Amino acid sequence: MMNSSPNAATPSRPYPEFSPKLEGFPRPISDRLAYHLSYGNLSLPPDDPRWGLIDSYLSSEALAVGCQIAKSANAIWHRRIEASWVGPGLSNAPYLDATSSTQFLGLRARLLINPGTLKLRIGGLLQSGLGGESVRGIIRRLSKKSRSRLLELTRELEASDIYPELMITLTYPRDWEGAISPEHAEALWQFRRAWGRMNAHRYRPKGPGWAERWAELRAEVRARLLRLREVGPDGKKVKAHLEAFRKRFERKFGTSWGLIWKLEFQRRGAPHIHLFLWNCNDIDPTELRAWIGRAWAEIVAGSDLSAYFDPQKLALYDAYREQGGREFAEAMLEGMGLNAGTWNHIRAGTGVEVIREKHWGYLAKEVQGGMNKAYQHDVPRRYRNVGRWWGYWRYNRAGWIELFYDLASASMQEIKEAIVKPFEAAIKTLPKACTDFKKRAKAALTRFLKTGSLAAQKVDSDGVVTEGAYGYLTVWGRAGVQAAIGAL
Q1: What does the alpha-carbon distance between residue 222 and residue 225 come to, in Å, rounded to a whole number?
Q2: Torsion over CA of 246, 250, 252 and 254, rounded to 10 degrees?
Q3: What confidence tens digit (pLDDT) does each residue in 327-369 have?
Q4: For residues 26 and 99, is the Cβ–Cβ distance under 8 A?
Q5: C-beta of residue 168 within 8 angstroms of C-beta of residue 296
Q6: Were both Cys, which of 104, 115, 401, 464 would link to 73 (CB 3.0–4.6 Å)?
Q7: Where are the alpha helices (DSSP H) in 231-387?
Q8: Which residues contact 302 (CB under 8 A, 6 or more apart)?
Q9: What is the Rg, in whole angstroms, of the alpha carbon atoms belonging to the chain?
Q10: pLDDT tops 90 at residue 280
Q11: CA–CA dist 368, 232 (Å, integer)
Q12: Which residue, 329, 333, 338, is CA-closest to 306?
């Protein structure tokens, strides 16, 4: 009787242990299957469902593309190995580290130069396209990559002697959810009402029709909750408010300035926007403070707020505040037909600060945050897609100079002259406070010369290098970039 288990099949010829690096070439999953099919006498019954799975896999387009890549890579692999016997080079290291189809055709070093940033990136020559087009997901938090890009922009501005001169802060009122999404307050009230009815029914005596009524109330609560999530505040409305503020600001103060804006969240969950302006010497901070409160409040409220600036009502509010305190004065405002939240938002919803130091340190602090401010870069549960966390207006970015080096064909001397030497020159310009970074950067460059990788290797139980072939190294500062260019 034949055994239908592939693991128990008797091999027709010597069946060595499968190795992911058999014959020195990385073996994908398809090679593992082909290996077992060729070496093992798989006597499966004709009606075994596994034959259908094997046939569908072997006839798939993905496997055909993978086999074509593997065939080309195998030929290049042998040519590179033969070439490496002739003279020194880094031919072997990148290929021995290869673990996926993105590295089949070897690695290359990419040197990127910007007025304020110097980057070295190690990556594959071929990016796998078997997965189809990627779709951008919902942004949930400020990522490390986004922070790095924002800091790259500040280094670029520093290289052009551009520094912030004013910082504007825009906040939302106490009922920030209703301000961003007017439908939210009504949906929240409907949800609470439905929840109250369901909770009250829970304690009624169970009798005929109790279960049916309970199911109806639960369905209503779920529908109200879904509606509450649909109309909840999201990034599109906040960005619409920010765009409306930009247009008002341009009409009032002209277009000679530039700025970086950054979004964060307060502890109460409300969005909070900082704007860092430069080339704004023509803007009077006193005039800006007098204008910005009303402008931002009208944008958020979506209506004209002239009634809130009536001198008589201002005098009455001050008198009520002095007589009975804040709560009494706000109650009297409601009696005059004014909203207390809007009243307070006009006076406390904005801030203007003059920055006298010539550096981007405050923005860098806001970007990095700290353990006690981690909540600023996480999207609250009741908030929908945040969109972009930062951006810039009225500034043209400098381009990147990109230099590519094929590590499989470059000699050791070429690698030293084109990559290592510029980075060593850039590292020397760093201040004493960067001593630890200098040591780690030099160690990474030394590892790169020995192994072709910037990162330490990690090998799994099958002997496959899972980390190490890719890596990056970044040096910031105009002095470092100029030193690197001079060393090229």
Answers
A1: 5
A2: 150
A3: 887 787 777 877 777 777 777 789 999 998 888 888 888 777 6
A4: yes
A5: no
A6: 104
A7: 235-253, 285-301, 311-324, 326-335, 340-348, 361-368
A8: 182
A9: 32
A10: yes
A11: 28
A12: 338
